[in-house]
Amino acid sequence: MRPAKRGSNLGLLLIAGLVIGLLIAAYVFRGVISRTVPGADVIYALLHLSTDNPAADLEISNFVAKITHDESSGQNVIDLSATIFNLSEYPVNVPTLMVIPIDEVNSQMEPLRFRLQELVVEPGQNINFKKSFDNWPPDATSAVLSWADMP
Questions:
Q1: pLDDT band for position 29 (50/70/90)?
Q2: Topology of 54-147 in CATH?
Q3: In this structure, which long-range contacts are made by residues 43-48, counting pairs with CB atoms below 8 Å and at least 24 apart in sequence?
């Protein structure tokens, strides 16, 4: 009779299969994982794996831009107000916003980027915000609000 084989590669095979399965799941479900696990989007970015665009789940509405002239400083001032709504069922990190001045001939001027105080929008949550910018370009007659980090 032959002695029984002491070493078996079955354990190593199971561990390798488990690791490969977890890596595949982390790749396939990267959009959900990046939204729900804090810091996961940074890890995916370091690995050069794209995740869902968070701005795709956020909606900007009720945008109002009021341009006034400040007599004391002699500068134009714009007062913005808008609402951001999370359409998804996951918390979403709020990306950088930008307001783009538009002149009389509908040409876009240099955008002004800003962030909101709220960093995360919960599912179904509305965020109402107001923002003012001094030294608004004198030729700008209107403005457009959009996401700064759109792909």
A1: confident
A2: Immunoglobulin-like (2.60.40)
A3: none
CA distances from 97 to 13, 17, 148 (A): 49, 43, 5
Q: Is 74 exposed, middle or buried (0-12, 13-18, 19+ CB in 10 A)?
A: exposed
Sheet of strand 58-70, all strands in order from the earlier edge strand to the far edge: 58-70, 75-86, 126-136
Give pTM, 2 decimals.
0.63
Residue 65's nearest CA partner among 151, 127, 145, 119 is 145
Burial state string for 134-150 with b = 16 or more CB within 10 A and e = fewer than 16: eebbeebeebebebbee
One-letter amino acid of 34: S
Nearest to 86 by CA among 34, 129, 128, 122: 122
